[in-house]
Specification:
With 478 residues, this protein is of the alpha+beta class. The chain has 15 helices and 16 strands. The protein is elongated and about 95 Å long. GO terms for molecular function: asparaginyl-tRNA synthase (glutamine-hydrolyzing) activity; ATP binding; glutaminyl-tRNA synthase (glutamine-hydrolyzing) activity; transferase activity.
C-alpha cells in the first residue's frame, strides 16, 4: 500500500461505582427501563449536582496506571449538543483542564513493542441509551432508556500514534487489562461498560500532514475494532485511488454486513460551546492523596509479565497470555504458590483449563477445578505417578467432581506402571504379535514405531511410562 494508516482511539469506560456521578441513583445494569433515574440525572429544573468522590479517586487511579500526570486543579465543563439520549441537552464533561494528561502505554504487536501516547484522561457522565427497532441504519423508530444517564465515565484519548488495525486492537485490549487490574471498571463490553470510537485517516507514505479522518462508532468488541478499521482502510484507499476525496464524517460499524455506514457528516469541526460548569466547584487534588493512590496500585500487567518471565522462566508469549487478565494471573500465582512447577502450570492453564472453560463458556473465576486441586494433579505428573495422557483423563473427572487428583487416581487404578520388568514383558508380547510392523521399522518406516508404542499403551490402558516404553522398544528393535 502507498498509504500510511493513522489511527487515534477514544476509550470510554464506565466506572465501577454503586451510584452515579452527580446523584445517588443506582448504576446497576439491566434494571427495568427508566427506573434508575431522578430529577438530577434527568436534568429537571432547580436541581444541583454533587460530585461522587469515588469517581475522582478512580479517575486519578486510572491516570496513574496509564503513566499520566495528575493535574492539581481541574474542572467540569458543559459540552452542549442535542441528542435524544441527553435529557439536559448538554453533557457534563471536562475540556481544557482534565484530571490527567500526557500518559502512555506500551503494546506488543508481531513481536515488537511500541509506545502509544495518551493525550488525556477525563471524567464525564454517560448519556442514555437509544434502543433501536433494528440496526441503526435500518430502524423505523428508537426508544430511549435514561438508566445509563449519569453513570460515571472516564474517557481515555490516545495520540494518533497507531499505525494498523492490529495495533489498535492491541491498544484497546491493553487498556481493558489495566482497568481490570486496578479494579475501577468491570469492562464488560457486551454491557457497554467499555466502548471505543476510532478516528482513522490515510496519508501518502512520507507525508507529514494528516489526511481527512473519519470516526467509527458502535464497536463493542476487540474483533469489531480490528474488522471495522480494516474495512475503513480498504474503503478510504479505494476512494483515494479513484481520485475521490475522503469526507469527514461519523460512521457506524454494521457487524451483520461487515461494513461501515455513514451516520452524519462532520465536514466542519463541531462547536460544542464548552463553558465551565457553574454548578460544580473545581477539583483541587492534594498531592498526598495522589501519592497514596499511587502506592495502592497493584502490580500492573507489564510488571507482572516481567516477573513471570524472570522468576519462572516463562516465554514472553506465555507470560503475556497469562497476565492479560488479572483474574487469570491471580489463578496462576495460586497454582504456583501451591508448589506446582511454574512452566507445567502455564501449560495446563493455557491448554486443558482454557479448552474446558471455552467449551463451557465459563470465566476463570467459575472454573470448578481450583488452583490447589490443579497443583495436586501437576504434582502427580512430576512424581511420575501418572502420565500426561492419564492426567487429562483425571482432569476431566476433576471437572465434574470435587475429588482430589490423588483420590481419582487411586479409585480408578490409574497409577503409572514404572516397573521395567513388567513393561519389558508387554513390549516382548507386542513385538511378537506384530512382525510386519517390526519389519517396517527396521526398513526405515518410523511410523511403525508409533504403532507399536500405541499397542503397548493400549494393553496397559495408557498406564505404562511412555519414556520407558520408547526406550525399551528401541533397545529391542535396534
Amino acid at each position: 500500500m502507498d498509504y500510511e494508516i493513522v489511527i487515534g482511539i477514544e476509550v470510554h469506560s464506565e466506572l465501577k461505582t454503586n451510584s452515579k456521578i452527580f446523584c445517588g441513583c443506582s448504576t446497576q445494569f439491566g434494571s427495568a427501563q427508566n427506573t434508575n433515574v431522578c430529577p438530577v440525572c434527568l436534568g429537571l429544573p432547580g436541581v444541583l449536582p454533587v460530585i461522587n468522590e469515588r469517581v475522582v479517586e478512580f479517575a486519578i487511579k486510572a491516570g496513574l496506571a496509564l503513566n499520566c500526570s495528575i493535574l492539581p486543579f481541574s474542572k467540569f465543563d458543559r459540552k452542549n449538543y442535542y441528542y435524544p439520549d441527553l435529557p439536559k441537552n448538554f453533557q457534563t464533561s471536562q475540556y481544557d483542564l482534565p484530571i490527567a494528561v500526557n500518559g502512555y502505554l506500551d503494546i506488543d504487536v508481531n513481536g515488537q513493542t511500541k509506545r502509544i501516547g495518551i493525550t488525556r484522561v477525563h471524567m464525564e457522565e454517560d448519556a442514555g441509551k437509544l434502543v433501536h427497532s433494528g440496526t441503526i441504519a435500518s430502524s423505523d423508530y428508537a426508544l430511549v432508556d435514561y438508566n445509563r444517564t449519569g453513570v460515571p465515565l472516564i474517557e481515555i484519548v490516545s495520540e494518533p500514534d497507531l499505525r494498523s488495525p492490529e495495533e489498535a486492537k492491541a491498544y484497546v485490549e491493553k487498556i481493558k487489562s489495566i482497568l481490570e487490574y486496578i479494579d475501577v471498571s468491570d469492562c464488560k463490553m457486551e454491557e457497554g461498560s467499555l466502548r471505543c470510537d476510532a478516528n482513522i485517516s490515510l496519508r501518502p507514505r512520507g507525508e507529514a500532514k494528516f489526511g481527512t479522518k473519519t470516526e467509527i462508532k458502535n464497536m463493542n468488541s476487540f474483533k469489531m475494532v480490528q474488522k471495522g478499521l480494516e474495512y475503513e482502510v480498504e474503503r478510504q484507499a479505494e476512494v483515494l485511488e479513484d481520485g475521490g476525496r475522503i469526507v469527514q464524517e461519523t460512521r457506524s460499524w454494521d457487524d451483520s454486513k461487515g461494513i461501515t455506514v455513514s451516520m452524519r457528516s462532520k465536514e466542519q469541526a463541531h462547536d460544542y460551546r464548552y463553558f465551565p460548569e457553574p454548578d460544580l466547584v473545581p477539583i483541587v487534588v492534594d498531592p498526598a492523596q495522589v501519592e497514596a493512590i499511587r502506592a495502592s496500585l497493584p502490580e500492573l500487567p507489564d510488571a507482572r509479565k516481567q516477573r513471570l518471565m524472570k522468576d519462572y522462566g516463562l516465554s514472553g508469549y506465555d507470560a503475556g497470555v497469562i497476565t492479560a487478565s488479572r483474574l487469570l494471573a491471580d489463578y496462576y500465582d495460586q497454582i504456583v504458590a501451591a508448589k506446582a512447577d511454574p512452566k507445567a502450570a502455564a501449560n495446563w492453564l493455557m491448554g486443558e483449563v482454557a479448552k474446558f472453560l471455552n467449551s463451557a463458556c465459563l470465566s476463570i473465576t467459575e472454573c470448578p477445578v481450583g488452583p490447589e486441586r490443579l497443583a495436586g494433579l501437576i504434582e502427580l505428573i512430576e512424581k511420575g505417578t501418572i502420565s500426561s495422557k492419564i492426567a487429562k483423563t483425571v482432569f476431566e473427572e476433576m471437572w465434574s467432581s470435587d475429588k482430589a487428583a490423588a483420590v481419582i487416581v487411586k479409585e480408578k487404578g490409574l497409577v503409572q506402571i514404572t516397573d521395567s520388568g513388567e513393561i519389558e514383558a508387554i513390549v516382548d508380547t507386542v513385538i511378537a504379535a506384530n512382525p510386519q510392523s517390526v519389519a517396517d521399522f527396521k526398513a526405515g518406516k518410523d511410523r511403525a514405531l508409533g504403532f507399536l508404542v500405541g499397542q503397548i499403551m493400549k494393553q496397559t490402558k495408557g498406564r505404562a511410562n511412555p519414556d520407558m516404553v520408547n526406550k525399551l522398544l528401541k533397545q529391542k528393535l535396534l
